[in-house]
Amino acid sequence: MAPPEGFESDAKTEYSVSLIWLKPEAERPRTLQYRLEFKRADSEDEPRVLIQNKENIVFRRLTPSTKYMFRVAAANEVGFGDYTEYITVTTCGVIKPEDRFKPTVPVINFI
After folding, report:
1. What are phi and psi of 78, to 5 degrees?
2. Distance between CA atoms of 9 and 11, rounded to whole angstroms?
3. Is the pTM of this model over 0.85?
4. What's the Rg (C-alpha) of the chain?
5. Close Cβ partners of 85 (under 8 Å, ≥ 6 residues apart)
6. Dist. CA 107–CA 63, nearest whole Å
7. Which structural domains are found in the chain, ordered by start?
8. Is 109 a residue whose pLDDT tops 60?
9. Are the CB atoms for 7 and 87 separated by under 8 Å?
10. Cα 56–60–61 angle (5° rounding)?
């Protein structure tokens, strides 16, 4: 079976990454599940595996400013097919509280 199509991150924060994809075109009516593999890019550990039946997922409780690697495979009644290539997503950095509301344009006081 071909891998899912259009696998990408559509949003990220300091602590989360959202991923989306489409069913493999030839398998659209028959795809039953997806197997996701994920890990920190700097890790030597084996990837963690998650199985689900939706074409999107949000990974939460991640570490800010950290690279993660993700890939996905689809399954039908015969079994799992090929994985997508890994995509690498870096979570956003943490914004210091004192920097959250700094003006980006000069402030002019009118009297």
Report:
1. -85, -30
2. 6
3. no
4. 19
5. 71
6. 34
7. 5-100 (2.60.40.10)
8. no
9. yes
10. 165
